[in-house]
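re: that chain from earlier
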Amino acid sequence: MALGQRARTMQETRDRLIQAARAAFAEKGFAASSMDELTAAAGLTRGALYHNFGDKKGLLRAVIEQLDAEMLAKARKARNSAHTPWLGFLAEGVAYIELALEPEIQRIMLLDGPAVLGDPSQWPGQNACLQTTTDSIAALIEAKTLRPVDAEAAARLINGAALNAALWVAASADPRAVLPKAVEAFRCLASGLLAPGAGG
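^ sequence. v structure.
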């Protein structure tokens, strides 16, 4: 088999396993999804799962990476549709929190993910997210929209607030009732960074 064809076949195998796992984890949860069911749904063997992901936990990581990238794209879309950089910055954080209402994200990213993989702030995707937020804050500071605070420190606090708000929404008995409270508090916290007289 040619090298290019082999790479395509390997990627197709990974994609099929991720899609099967994503559907199963969203519907049944991580613990109740068996590897045999996952591989059967993908039309593959357990060996393919082990070869590509090591184990079911490795497959969960891959599913979360895919969901994380989709969440980031949705949050950036909200940012890019805002009228000013400051409103875009707020919209991005709010959009992230609002994604906690999506059943797939709620179950996989915000409930099962932390339970199985530990603290989400330590997941690999969070480093890229932190850098993006740091860059946004640095630009807003340079534009005199935000107070001259340490950009990384502010980014860590803002990202932590958005993440914990999303976790709270997802874990609550009534996510739709909790969401507006979380969003309002997030907006108030973020607005504390505004420079005196700056409205964004």
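The chain has a mean pLDDT of 92.
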